[in-house]
């Protein structure tokens, strides 16, 4: 997989433009939801659950596929184990360093729930569990909370939580990285029920939606119909003196059923003598969370809350333990586990199954191989855990109260959001395949651009996304909008909030808390030559220097000592000459170079230093000739200039090779080096000498002198 | 100042209406490019409608209201403005401000109504005002549409009261922030404000100077003092009256006292006496997500909702209070001003007893009895101190020492005899008039939503005309009262009930024969409830919280089937528990009834009495507001480009302005302290947007500097790219390929000489300070550049001076290393 990514990277050289969606779990399967999203150098993990079909390490998502240290943030949608149970493992036993986010109720319930999980996985016969209670506490300690509709910025990753329906605290996450928006639904339901609202429809359109596909292309019956059947069965059973057993999962749907029962009891005073028991310790403990987070639920509940807290059940008692249960007459008992494998629900079932007045209602999906599934087949007898066959006479019903989106919900949801890319997760391969086909056909019929993906676990989906990076030009640069073709030079400033601005560096203190710094530099050099010579050398070096025309201008006020001559080289550098103190007896003055640090100015200043130093070491008499040449050039007298150049070359050659003699009429220079005579024609560049090596040296020197006589251009600096 | 005025449409304009250069209630107008916000609309205990005149004058311009806190000073005028002045615009607030604010206003009304013919607004007005609310969550971005298109509203935690908000209004990439009454300290029930973390150089910050001159004592000490004096009074056989607000700081106080009572197992009754006591606590229980995270930490497994109080007793009437055991007790009572409510009644009853104490936990509003009491007490204390110096007169002074004050005691009594008859006759006339008015109004008004308000207003007018001093609290009988009281009786769960109701046959008997034959095959059972396509194996992943072989309960005890057939007595316990709950509910309902004014015609009886203040008066700063120094630190950190100071005494405002001008001098910020009605224009910053092309960004090197990332950027503007979402012009790399020409020219940062000295030492260059300059290696001097030096661009920076030498370049290298260079 990685190699493909490498190839893509190499192909366009721009990895930033590719979104990688990699399921480490829940790819063409249900369980261990864990999806990695990478884009623009950021990595986000969506959910971190275990697979209920496996134990121990085998139940974890395939964390080895990635380097967990790279994960910047982990977002957990809700408290079901296949979405959250691996969080303490990742935080406690891997090199994961990122942040962990959950909603308030999710965090509260996850803590309770995983405490049980730790106990159970230890007791499950597999030896040590995945993690200890201490790992769990540490994980909870570092978990941050996010509220619905809230947008948090996690350093370049903007996360917004939306209500997902499903269970209390369930969230969908909109993840925005560098302008790319991805929506992860987790488990969601678009139909409101008793206590949960429908999933929100995010107002911003995502580019990619990662959506659950649990129910594939199936459709739910209307909720009212299901509720009606549910209470009918119960009422009928208790009316004939029977007991009703509701095997449930402790959290989530159980609360929905309690609300239905509570309301029905409230409306039927004749039932008030029939007790309703809630026999799950977990549910009892979590009900305080339900009571506290009324605000997270739907409007019906919130409205009811203005009268009284609807989770203060009047007709429902919690069974602290089996010892508190008094099995004397008609009653309704809600007990775990939901599949009647063991525990309280199983015991009650076995105790009650022979009485035809009794009734058991399976409200969750019945998994194959469990007693719950078996009794739906209407057998005449069942096997107790003691191995005794007893007749099954009680009434058996199955009414589903599931809170996953079905096909119409998913389809409408996607039609409303219109994401160009849809990644299916959390569903079995065949179901997912059907859903993919149906959604593709639907999109094609409506002419909506939509690409669907159904990656297997560890198989990455690569989606090209090109995000625009916009910047606001402010301050003195932003005075008027730039026309096409205009240049913009300034500082690009990206603040923590994510906005990019372009501004002049002097505007920094207006818009940021940064200050432009300055390093003013003053460099002093002793000067034993007349200043005029230095000045000339600089002038020759830097053509176009501001002040070429008025070189030597005396500016008494800006000189640090109040007197001296100031020379400007380019815009950046000034050179101040301080003549020797008359009384000091010192032979030379001082040149002070002053400039404001920066790469350009430093370059000019350093060059100026070189020029000054060179001028200081020049052969005597040369500057005078240079003055002549300069004057001649200024006057346009090319002949005189040529003559002066000849003089300069003579002086330079003399400095290098010993005494030189010039024949001005012929334009020839004669030099004698160690008895070897050299005749030089500087104009033609020809050198005559018997000694080849010496001739070469002189030729090279001559070449350099010619080059040096041409001034360089510094007008830009 | 018409919205379409010349300057109004482009810039930002701020007009303080109330609450500048004073501690008056707050209300300001903020106009952003033609869209006008009313920031808070507070009122005070005087309920003087004249005070609101500035708001009433600008009412037609207002497009939306933003509320920051749930107390009188921030939202008190809302019911009046909505109910009596026809304000009908969206009101944005956080959900706790919505809920608690409503409690506050109910309590205000009920307390006033109990002692006067309070006619400024009524319960209907409160309901219609709060019906306009659009609750938001912290950090929820709300994008406005219509006239306010492009404006994004976001509330952030302010810390002071539950749900208290700092508002960010964002338009065109600029942030305008309204932050008053914030608290940076973490408290028992609230986390501190996020002001500092959330904002950096906003274009405008409107903030308060209230506490500018205050220095906050350490919290533990402050709380201990409070508890100590409370305990001293209780042990001295005296009772303590704590006047509190209805739903704000009260919560913090409840947590503090409840915990203290629990820790010390105190038996003195701890009472909250407020018409809204039950509702407030219930709401608090359900708003934990707005509170301090530490408070919630134990919620899941310890089952402790911090507001399920064990010691605190809730009373909503004097009668309930009288049922409590006699003797010393601590009573927190509303209203905080002592102008009305239970706190006033208790004050009148208790002030004369020198063993009692009145403990104020908030600074009193101007002109209230609370303020008067505090002043009198302070004066007495001063006097006593002086007198203690003249010890010889002490005995004589004590005899005459206690100050007295004249107070009006009012109560509402039912009408009797002739009065009642007169009233009934008058009422009938009123009702007819009101009905006519309502009908007329309804006919005229087509907007269904506004009908109730209009009718209420009409009814109120009719009342005022004919009723004189007599008015039943439910006088406007013709008005359909959607919800007559704070809570309770409001909404039945009718909607949901209807669904279940269908189970019954028409004769009301449960239908029994509906039992379906359960002989269907397994598949048939499976499809009940949803449609499963053929071949689907397990449509839903089963989730189990309890694994197989559960043989122990969560306490570790073995589960035995025999236990399920336990003795009868245990079953009764369960039932008893249910009964207790039931009776609690009944008591609650009763309390609500008691809190409501009776539905009989009543009148107010007043008498002037003389109260001698012998009880001790204590005052503690429990306001939960940042003190002056912290405010300065925070504001310097936020560093707004423009800052407007409001809400605070003139002295505090001036002091704060001076501080800010000093602290923000280097950042070119402006500070305004407008007087009421004086508009402040904030010039719009000219700007335009560009898309930075990928080619350009590929060559950009970002440097991280503090909270920012910076890079030198040089490019040429080109036409928008094909298929660009925004269609903005693009910035392409400069054509000359001299991309790096300007690079290295911008130094950023502020270097301290001491840091430089260390850096030099690290590379082995010795340096020492002399006369404020750093002498390095003997012949290079580094000193700070004098402020206001030449070349503009502000002061700062360094001067590096020295003779040409190798060391010079080495030192320069180190100096450069201290800066971020782009």
Automatic annotation (TrEMBL), chain A:
This is Cleavage and polyadenylation specificity factor subunit 3. One of its GO terms (molecular function) is RNA endonuclease activity. One of its GO terms (biological process) is mRNA 3'-end processing by stem-loop binding and cleavage. Residues 254-375 form the Beta-Casp domain. Gene3D superfamilies: 3.40.50.10890, Ribonuclease Z/Hydroxyacylglutathione hydrolase-like. Residues 31-242 form the Metallo-beta-lactamase domain. Its main location: nucleus. The lineage of its organism: Eukaryota, Viridiplantae, Chlorophyta, core chlorophytes, Trebouxiophyceae. Keywords: Hydrolase, mRNA processing, Nuclease, Nucleus. GO terms for cellular component: mRNA cleavage and polyadenylation specificity factor complex. Residues 484-712 form the Pre-mRNA 3'-end-processing endonuclease polyadenylation factor C-term domain. It is found in: Nucleus.
């Amino acid at each position: 997989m990685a190699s493909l990514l490498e190839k893509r990277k190499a192909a366009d050289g721009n990895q930033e433009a590719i979104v990688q969606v990699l399921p480490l779990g829940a790819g063409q399967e249900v369980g261990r939801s864990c999806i990695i999203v990478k884009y623009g150098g950021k990595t986000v993990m969506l959910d971190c659950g275990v697979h209920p079909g496996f134990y121990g390490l085998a139940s974890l998502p395939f964390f080895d596929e990635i380097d967990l240290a790279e994960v910047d943030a982990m977002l957990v949608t809700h408290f079901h184990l296949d979405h959250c149970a691996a969080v303490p493992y990742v935080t406690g036993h891997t090199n994961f360093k990122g942040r962990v986010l959950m909603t308030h109720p999710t965090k509260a319930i996850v803590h309770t729930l995983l405490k049980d999980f730790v106990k159970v996985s230890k007791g499950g016969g597999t030896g040590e569990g995945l993690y200890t209670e201490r790992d769990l506490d540490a994980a909870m300690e570092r978990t941050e909370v996010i509220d619905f509709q809230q947008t948090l910025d996690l350093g370049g990753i903007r996360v917004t939580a939306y209500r997902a329906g499903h269970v209390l605290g369930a969230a969908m996450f909109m993840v925005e990285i560098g302008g790319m928006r991805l929506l992860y639904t987790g488990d969601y339901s678009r139909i409101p029920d008793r206590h949960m609202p429908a999933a929100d429809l995010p107002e911003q359109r995502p580019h990619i939606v990662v959506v659950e596909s649990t129910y594939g292309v199936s459709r739910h019956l209307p909720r009212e119909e299901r509720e009606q059947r549910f209470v009918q069965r119960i009422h009928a059973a208790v009316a004939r003196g029977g007991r009703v057993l509701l095997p449930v999962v402790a959290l989530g749907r159980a609360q929905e059923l309690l609300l239905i029962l509570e309301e029905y009891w409230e409306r039927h005073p004749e039932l008030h003598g029939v007790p309703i028991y809630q026999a799950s310790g977990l549910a009892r403990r979590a009900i305080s969370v339900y009571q506290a987070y009324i605000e997270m639920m739907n409007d019906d509940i919130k409205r009811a809350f203005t009268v009284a807290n609807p989770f203060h059940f009047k007709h429902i008692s919690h069974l602290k333990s089996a010892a508190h249960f008094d099995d004397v007459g008609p009653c309704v008992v809600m007990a775990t586990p939901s599949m009647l494998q063991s525990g309280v629900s199983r015991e009650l079932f076995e105790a009650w199954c022979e009485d035809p007045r009794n009734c058991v209602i399976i409200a969750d999906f019945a998994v194959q191989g469990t007693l719950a599934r078996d009794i739906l087949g209407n057998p005449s007898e069942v096997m107790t855990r003691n191995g005794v066959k007893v007749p099954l006479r009680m009434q058996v019903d199955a009414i589903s109260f599931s809170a996953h989106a079905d096909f119409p919900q998913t389809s409408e949801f996607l039609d409303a959001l219109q994401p160009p890319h849809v990644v299916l997760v959390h569903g079995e391969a065949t179901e997912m395949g059907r859903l993919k086909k149906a959604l593709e056909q639907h999109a094609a019929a409506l002419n909506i651009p939509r690409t669907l993906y159904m990656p297997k676990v560890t198989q990455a989906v690569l989606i090209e996304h090109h995000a625009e990076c916009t910047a606001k030009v402010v301050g003195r640069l932003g005075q008027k909008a730039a026309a096409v073709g205009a240049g913009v030079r300034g500082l690009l400033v990206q603040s923590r909030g994510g906005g990019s601005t372009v501004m002049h560096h002097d505007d920094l203190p207006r818009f940021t808390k940064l200050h432009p710094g300055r390093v003013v530099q003053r460099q002093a050099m002793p000067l034993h030559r007349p200043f005029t010579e230095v000045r000339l050398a600089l002038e020759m070096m830097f053509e176009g220097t501001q002040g070429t025309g008025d070189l030597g201008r005396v500016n008494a006020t800006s000189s640090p000592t109040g007197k001296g001559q100031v020379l400007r080289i380019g815009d950046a550098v000034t050179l101040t000459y301080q003549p020797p103190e008359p009384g000091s007896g010192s032979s030379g003055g001082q040149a002070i170079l002053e400039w404001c640090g920066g790469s350009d100015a430093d370059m000019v200043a350093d060059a100026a230093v070189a020029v000054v130093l060179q001028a200081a070491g020049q052969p005597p008499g040369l500057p005078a000739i240079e003055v002549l040449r300069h004057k001649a050039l200024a006057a346009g007298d090319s002949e005189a200039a040529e003559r002066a150049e000849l003089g300069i070359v003579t002086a330079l050659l003399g400095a290098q090779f010993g005494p030189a003699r010039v024949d001005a009429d012929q334009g020839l220079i004669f030099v004698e080096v160690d008895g070897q005579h050299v005749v030089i024609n500087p104009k033609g560049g020809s050198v005559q000498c018997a000694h080849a090596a010496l001739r070469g040296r002189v030729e090279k020197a001559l070449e350099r002198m010619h080059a040096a006589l041409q001034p360089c251009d510094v007008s830009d600096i | 100042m018409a919205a379409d005025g010349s300057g109004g449409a482009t810039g930002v304009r701020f007009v303080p209406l109330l609450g500048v250069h004073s501690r008056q209630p707050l209300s300001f107008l903020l106009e952003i490019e033609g869209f006008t916000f009313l920031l808070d609309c507070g009122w005070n205990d005087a309920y003087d409608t004249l005070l609101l005149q500035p708001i009433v004058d600008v009412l037609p311009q207002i497009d939306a209201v933003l509320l920051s806190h749930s107390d009188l000073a921030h939202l008190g005028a809302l019911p009046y403005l909505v109910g009596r002045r026809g304000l009908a615009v969206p009101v944005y607030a956080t959900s706790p401000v919505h809920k608690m604010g409503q409690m506050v206003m109910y309590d205000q009304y009920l307390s006033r109504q109990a002692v006067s013919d309070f006619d400024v607004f009524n319960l209907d007005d409160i309901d219609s005002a709060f019906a306009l609310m659009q609750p938001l969550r912290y950090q929820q971005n709300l994008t406005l549409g219509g006239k306010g298109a492009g404006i994004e509203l976001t509330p952030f935690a302010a810390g002071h009261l539950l749900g208290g908000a700092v508002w960010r209004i964002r338009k065109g990439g600029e942030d305008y922030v309204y932050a008053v009454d914030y608290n940076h300290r973490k408290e028992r029930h609230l986390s501190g404000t996020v002001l500092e973390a959330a904002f950096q150089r906003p274009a405008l910050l409107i903030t308060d100077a209230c506490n500018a001159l205050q220095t906050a004592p350490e919290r533990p000490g402050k709380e201990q003092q409070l508890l100590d004096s409370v305990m001293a009074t209780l042990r001295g056989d005296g009772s303590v009256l704590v006047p509190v607000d209805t739903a704000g700081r009260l919560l913090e106080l409840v947590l503090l006292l409840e915990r203290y009572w629990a820790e010390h197992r105190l038996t003195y009754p701890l009472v909250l006496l407020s018409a809204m006591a039950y509702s407030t606590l219930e709401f608090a229980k359900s708003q934990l997500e707005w509170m301090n995270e530490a408070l919630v930490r134990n919620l899941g497994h310890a089952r402790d909702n911090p507001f399920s109080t064990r010691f605190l007793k809730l009373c909503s009437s004097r009668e309930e209070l009288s049922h409590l055991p006699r003797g010393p007790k601590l009573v927190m009572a509303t209203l905080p001003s002592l102008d009305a409510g239970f706190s006033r009644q208790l004050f009148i009853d208790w002030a004369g007893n020198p063993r009692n104490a009145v403990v104020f936990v908030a600074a009193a509003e101007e002109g209230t009895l609370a303020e008067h009491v505090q002043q009198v007490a302070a004066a007495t204390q001063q006097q006593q101190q002086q007198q203690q110096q003249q010890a010889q007169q002490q005995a004589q002074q004590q005899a005459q020492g206690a100050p007295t004050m004249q107070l009006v005691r009012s109560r509402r009594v039912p009408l009797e005899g002739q009065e009642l008859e007169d009233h009934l006759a008058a009422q009938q006339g009123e009702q007819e008039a009101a009905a006519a008015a309502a009908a007329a109004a309804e006919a005229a008004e087509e907007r269904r939503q506004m009908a109730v308000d209009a009718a209420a207003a009409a009814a109120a007018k009719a009342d005022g005309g004919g009723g004189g001093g007599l008015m039943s609290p439910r006088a406007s009988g013709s008005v359909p009262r959607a919800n007559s009281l704070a809570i309770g009786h409001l909404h039945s769960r009718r909607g949901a009930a209807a669904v279940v109701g269908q189970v019954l046959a028409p004769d009301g008997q449960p239908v029994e024969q509906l039992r379906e034959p359960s002989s269907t095959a397994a598949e048939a059972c499976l499809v009940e409830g949803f449609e499963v396509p053929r071949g689907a194996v397990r449509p839903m992943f089963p989730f189990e919280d309890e694994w197989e072989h559960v043989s122990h309960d969560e306490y570790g005890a073995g589960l035995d089937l025999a236990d399920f057939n336990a003795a009868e007595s245990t079953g009764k316990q369960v039932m008893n528990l249910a009964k207790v709950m039931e009776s609690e509910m009944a008591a609650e309902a009763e309390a609500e009834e008691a809190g409501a004014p009776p539905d009989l015609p009543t009148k107010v009886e007043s008498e002037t009495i003389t109260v001698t203040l012998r009880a001790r008066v204590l005052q503690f700063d429990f306001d939960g507001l940042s003190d002056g120094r912290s405010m300065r630190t925070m504001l310097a950190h936020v560093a707004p480009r423009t800052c407007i100071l409001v809400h605070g005494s003139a002295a505090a405002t001036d002091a704060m302005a001076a501080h800010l001008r000093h602290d923000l001098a280097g950042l070119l910020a402006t500070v305004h302290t407008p007087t009421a009605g004086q508009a402040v224009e904030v010039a719009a910053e000219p700007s335009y947007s560009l898309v930075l092309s990928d080619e350009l960004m590929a060559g950009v090197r970002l440097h991280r500097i503090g909270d920012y990332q910076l890079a030198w950027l040089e490019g040429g503007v080109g036409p928008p790219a094909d298929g660009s979402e925004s269609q903005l012009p693009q910035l392409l790399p400069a054509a000359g390929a001299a991309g790096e020409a300007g690079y290295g020219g911008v130094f950023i940062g502020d270097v301290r000489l001491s840091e430089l000295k260390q850096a030099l030492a690290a590379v082995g260059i010795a340096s020492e300070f002399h006369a404020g300059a750093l002498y390095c290696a003997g012949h290079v001097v580094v000193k700070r550049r004098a402020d206001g030096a030449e070349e503009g661009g502000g002061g700062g920076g360094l001067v590096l001076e020295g003779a040409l030498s190798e060391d010079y370049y080495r030192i320069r290298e180190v100096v450069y290393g201290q800066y971020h260079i782009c």
